[in-house]
Structure formats: structure tokens, C-alpha cells
Amino acid sequence: RAKTDGRGTYRIFNPEMDAVAQERRLLELDMRNAFVNGEYKLVYQPQISLDNQEIVGFEALLRWEHPERGLVSPEFFIPVAEETGLIIQLGDWVIRRACMEAMQWPDHVRVAVNVSSIQFMRGNVINSVMSALAASGLPPQRLEIEITETVLLEKTEQNIAILEQLHALGVRIAMDDFGTGYSSLGYLRRFRFDKIKIDRSFIRDVAQNRESGAIVHAITKLGVSFGILTTAEGVETQEQLFHLAREGCTEVQGWQFSKAIPAEDVSSVLAVPVSAAIDRWRREHEER
Ligand code: C2E
Ligand code: MG
Ligand code: MG
Ligand code: MG
User: Fold this and answer.
1) From the CB of 90, is ligand 1 less than 6 Å away?
2) Which of 59, 128, 138, 272 is positioned for an S-S bond with 99, CB 3.0–4.6 A?
3) Is 132 left (phi over 0), alpha (psi -120 to 50) or beta?
């Protein structure tokens, strides 16, 4: 039995093929079928502004609900989608779906979408974004694209040109997971990011670890002087929240407020004031 692997080459299934490789082929097949079967969905995590203590946007996070495997984590299946090239099709679907669902929200609420560096470099992200905006009617200002530093690692000029074109459409650009991987401060000078998202690994022990604290301090200061918003990812405790507010971080996202929620719950989350955590924070600030 021969099967195309999507790159125009052929691989033959044979009895010697080891179990790992077989399992892998099955997974790839499952991932393609998941499209047809409607097993992918998006969940949304609130992003809270520390200026006005309001939800200013939601990050769309991909989920795969497999009938037998159960809920499969994107940390597991996105790398597979990237290796097989399926990420291009899947990523297009994510952009389109997120824009459609965000149309149901109030006008001031943005949607942030993760775009894989593979999709960014091999797909046509400008076309994907334009067609998603056109199909949904979402104003471009309400869409934020999250990319990682990997996008700027190779073919930097070419990729910055793509980012500029997205900007020209009116779409916002955020740098995700900042501080991990290949961080180069030079990138911040080459392109006007609208937002830097400080990686969760620095937030986790920001209040206890001197180095994490120093990194978060440096990034927030950089944000202020560049006029770039800074979002702290993975805020789980009030201690972290207070620390970040004092540092001048502009937005927070994390389980302290909410995990990612189904699309149908977005309006009810928007209807109530941001969690008690924020109220406590505000009281504390007013007392001083
Ligand atoms: P990310 O873009 O950095 O997303 C943040 C991840 O942190 C999400 O994991 C979110 O659920 C998790 N998180 C948020 N708050 C907290 C917290 O307080 N504590 C902890 N421990 N975790 C928190 P998730 O949804 O499993 O996604 C993991 C990664 O998968 C994402 O990291 C992103 O790189 C990728 N991903 C998710 N959806 C998509 C997508 O639609 N397209 C692409 N290309 N990548 C995606
Ligand atoms: Mg992200
Ligand atoms: Mg991140
Ligand atoms: Mg991440």
C-alpha cells in the first residue's frame, strides 16, 4: 500500500515498519480526517488590560476532540501538523473560524490568533488573513496575529515584508513567547510589534526568582520605551499579578482569571465584571 506523504514522495507500508512509525501514520490520517469530521474547535482565553481592568481580547487556542483519543493537546499535534504541512490548511481554518466567532462579540473586543512559523513561511498568510476578514466582515483592527521569534530567524527581510503588509491591512502583530528561543532585541528595532507577550516560564517564578524578575522588569521597561504593549502569559496567582502590575505590565492572561472557554461562553464572561482578583487588586491600589 503506497501513500503520498504530502510532499509528492511515496512511502510504502511494510511489515518491518516499526510501531512508532505506524502509529505516526495513523495520527496523520486521523488529523486529516478530523477536518472532515469537524473534530477541531477553538477555545478562547481572556486578555485583561491592567489600565482599565477590562477584557480587551481573547486568544484563540486550538483543540482537537478525538472520539477515541479524547482531547488532544496542541503541544502534541501542532508539531505533527507542521511536519506534515497540514498546518497550512489547519492554520487557515483557525484564522477564518476565529474571525467568524469574534464577529459575535462586542466591537471593542479583539481576537488573537497564533500563526505557526511554518504556515507563515510556506503558506500565504496575507491571502488567508484577507479572505478571513472578507468572509467574516471583521474589522482588521480587531484581529491580532501572534507569531514567535522563529519567524524572523530565517529569511528575515522577506518575513518582515509580510508583517509590514499585514500591518498595512490594519491587523495587529504580537510577538509570542518572548524571551525563549532565539530572542534578539534587534528584531524589535526592525519591526514595530504592537505587543510583546512575556513567556510563561518567566512569570511562573517572577516574584521569587531574581533572574526571572530582572527579565520581566527589562521587557516591561523596553515595552514602555518602545510604546509596545506587554502581556504576561500564564498568570496564575495574585502574587504574580501584583508584581506584574507594579512593573507596569499592560495586560495579563492566565488561569488567575480564566482558562480558555468555549466560544458559546464568551458573551457571558464579558457580561460580568472581570474576576474578583481584579477587584481585590483595584481595592489594594486605591488604599495606597
Ligand atoms: P501559546 O500561544 O503561548 O498559548 C498559551 C498557552 O498557555 C495555552 O496552552 C494556554 O492554555 C496556556 N495557559 C494560559 N494560561 C495559563 C496559566 O495560567 N497556566 C498554565 N500552566 N498555562 C496557561 P495551549 O492551549 O495548550 O496551547 C499551547 C501552544 O500551542 C500555544 O502556546 C501555541 O503555541 C500553540 N497553539 C495553540 N493553538 C494554536 C493555533 O491555533 N495555531 C498554532 N499555530 N498554534 C497554536
Ligand atoms: Mg499565543
Ligand atoms: Mg505564548
Ligand atoms: Mg507557547
Assistant:
1) no
2) 138
3) alpha
